[in-house]
Backbone:
């Protein structure tokens, strides 16, 4: 159950990696595009306009996120509720795009092979995913989940060089893969919790009752603040992997 209001508290910071990823795409005429895990659709709209795409489809499995998407749709841009893992198409795409979504899905060797099969012969793949699982903000969330008796999130994101090899073996002739560190200036370490509440902690909120989740948050926040210290403002480093390739 995604909470778009919490997610968008850091809208500008979350939009920058999207724009960095979009800038890697080669603009070609009359592209057919899919945005997997499109969220509210606001950035899908930006992508669609930037590429002057012929057709764009946004796919997401969260009703709460998709609620907002209707205001961004048009004749050439539509949104559908669906799961990335079960996604199929009867016509190939010129671009498969995904910003901050595929890290929720396991087995990337299998997933990427499946996505590549949906691309046209000169198609492009552009994917951005957080890779910050070794930061205390994420590590402590995993530890707190275990101490609350719920399954911790699995780390699905591979090291960048694994994506380079994967794209090579999947037949991409050109590729650009990089790990980028985004630095976010937050008022204090406690604000890191506001950040993770909108994304990383989502499955924990779902797995716990409202009361237990409040207890979880209190314990998690105390441990995060103890680990990150009193520095004000707090400089939150956030690693992301950016992946682009074409045949
Ligand atoms: C962090 S948000 C990113 C949203 C959007 N791409 C953006 O950049 O603003 C991740 C989105 O992925 C969606 N998502 C996660 N797993 C998914 C899956 N298996 N199938 C479809 N959508 C999924 C979530 O519902 C959520 O809207």
Residues:
């Amino acid at each position: 159950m995604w909470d778009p209001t919490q997610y968008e508290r850091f809208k500008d910071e979350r939009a920058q990696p999207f724009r960095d990823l979009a800038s890697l795409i080669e603009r070609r005429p009359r592209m057919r595009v899919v945005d997997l895990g499109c969220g509210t659709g606001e950035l899908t709209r930006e992508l669609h306009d930037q590429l002057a795409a012929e057709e764009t489809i946004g796919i997401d499995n969260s009703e709460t996120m998709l609620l907002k998407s209707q205001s961004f749709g048009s004749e050439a841009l539509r949104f559908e509720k669906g799961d990335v893992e079960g996604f199929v198409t009867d016509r190939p795409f010129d671009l498969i795009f995904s910003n901050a979504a595929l890290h929720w899905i396991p087995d990337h060797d299998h997933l990427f092979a499946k996505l590549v099969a949906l691309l046209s012969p000169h198609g492009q793949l552009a994917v951005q995913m957080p890779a910050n699982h070794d930061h205390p903000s994420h590590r402590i969330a995993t530890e707190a989940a275990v101490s609350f008796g719920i399954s911790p999130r699995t780390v699905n994101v591979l090291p960048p060089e694994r994506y380079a090899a994967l794209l090579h073996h999947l037949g991409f002739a050109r590729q650009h893969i990089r790990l980028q560190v985004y630095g976010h200036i937050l008022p204090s370490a406690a604000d890191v919790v506001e950040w993770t509440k909108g994304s990383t902690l989502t499955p924990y909120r779902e797995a716990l009752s409202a009361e237990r989740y409040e207890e979880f948050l209190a314990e998690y926040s105390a441990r995060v603040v103890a680990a990150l210290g009193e520095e004000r403002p707090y400089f939150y480093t956030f690693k992301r992997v950016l992946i682009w390739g074409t045949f």
About this structure: Strands lie at 32-36, 55-60, 77-81, 93-99, 119-130, 174-186, 234-246. The chain has a mean pLDDT of 94.
